[in-house]
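lol forgot to send this yesterday, sorry. struct tokens for the thing we talked abt
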């Protein structure tokens, strides 16, 4: 195998892309900017910064759409590279169904509330050019038809009972079923991928972090076991049964109850929430801990299809950070206010 064949090639590409990511040094400077032009100047020279610098922005929504389009173009470029193993392309497609789920939720919420939730130009619906149809769908049956036609019938089956006049709790339960189906399908396909043992652990960890976020918010708000139906299933270290046990505990007692690997996270959440009483402390701590765990599992798997999963997580993290910074700037706030919500990749 030559250096431009298969995994050595894609590994070299990903490592090259890492060198053009926005670093912690960039974000330290971004937290001090006063306007959009200054923020764009700070990130000039990075891949995403050069891309954004080519477009004028009057609103956050315009910039937000461009960030997602940048991600989409980056993925399409990778898929066009030769030679890229077919398993790499399949992994991208499997992973990005998460954005189909988000777009399905947005469509259903639009139908039930009459408001216009934003859609994200990523995923199967976008790749097959069905996203405009979903945006303009006028009924749940119309959404179901679109999903069936683009190969997402697993998800259309779950929204058959979605009534636009139903109570919010019923609608949220159906949305939770969409999330569980995504992770269930993800795990099934992960078992067929090379390096499957690590991949299954990665997915399980993602599920654990979603459940921990939900559970700790429920404990903080004292709503208890009412959130159990909204969890995403058994993760890597935390089962549905263990979720129930956590929900009956006080926040400070969770440190001793969670698996050892997550005790630092539980401690950070308990201490941070006690000081601030803010749910954003929980989400920020979970995001940072999740990134640390995924870094340990994925960043060095160069000759594995999982190298592309690492790339996807890096780009998502970069985009999430930028969205937080630019939203603060467009809202006339000091970016320093969102510092604790950022996840530094380097």
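and heres what i got for the seq, position by position
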């Amino acid at each position: 195998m030559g250096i431009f064949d298969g995994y050595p090639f894609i590994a070299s590409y990903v490592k090259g892309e890492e060198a053009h990511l926005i670093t912690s040094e960039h974000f330290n400077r971004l937290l001090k900017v006063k306007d959009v032009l200054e923020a764009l100047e700070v990130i000039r020279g990075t891949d995403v910064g050069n891309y954004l610098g080519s477009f004028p922005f009057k609103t956050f929504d315009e910039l937000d759409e461009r960030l997602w389009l940048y991600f989409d173009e980056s993925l399409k470029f990778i898929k066009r590279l030769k030679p890229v193993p077919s398993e790499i392309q399949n992994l991208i497609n499997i992973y990005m169904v998460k954005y189909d789920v988000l777009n399905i939720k947005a469509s259903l919420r639009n139908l039930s509330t009459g408001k216009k939730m934003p859609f994200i130009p990523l995923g199967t619906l976008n790749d097959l050019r069905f996203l405009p149809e979903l945006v303009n769908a006028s009924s749940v049956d119309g959404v179901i038809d679109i999903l069936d036609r683009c190969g997402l019938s697993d998800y259309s089956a779950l929204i058959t009972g979605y009534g636009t006049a139903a109570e919010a709790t019923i609608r949220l339960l159906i949305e939770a079923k969409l999330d569980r189906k995504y992770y269930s399908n993800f795990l099934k396909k992960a078992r067929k991928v090379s390096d499957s043992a690590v991949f299954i652990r990665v997915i399980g960890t993602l599920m654990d972090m979603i459940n921990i976020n939900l559970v700790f918010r429920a404990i903080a708000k004292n709503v208890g076991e009412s959130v159990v139906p909204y969890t995403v299933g058994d993760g890597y270290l935390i089962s549905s049964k263990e979720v129930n046990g956590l929900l009956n505990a006080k926040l400070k007692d969770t440190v001793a109850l969670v698996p050892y690997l997550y005790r630092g996270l539980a401690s950070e959440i308990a201490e941070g929430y006690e000081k601030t009483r803010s749910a954003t402390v929980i989400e920020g701590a979970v995001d940072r801990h999740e990134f640390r765990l995924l870094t340990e599992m994925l960043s060095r798997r160069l000759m594995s299809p999982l190298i592309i999963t690492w790339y996807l997580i890096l780009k998502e993290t970069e985009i999430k950070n930028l969205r937080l910074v630019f939203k603060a700037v467009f809202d006339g706030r000091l970016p320093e206010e969102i510092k604790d919500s950022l996840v530094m990749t380097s």
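Residues 196-221 form the longest helix (26 residues). anyway ping me if u want another try
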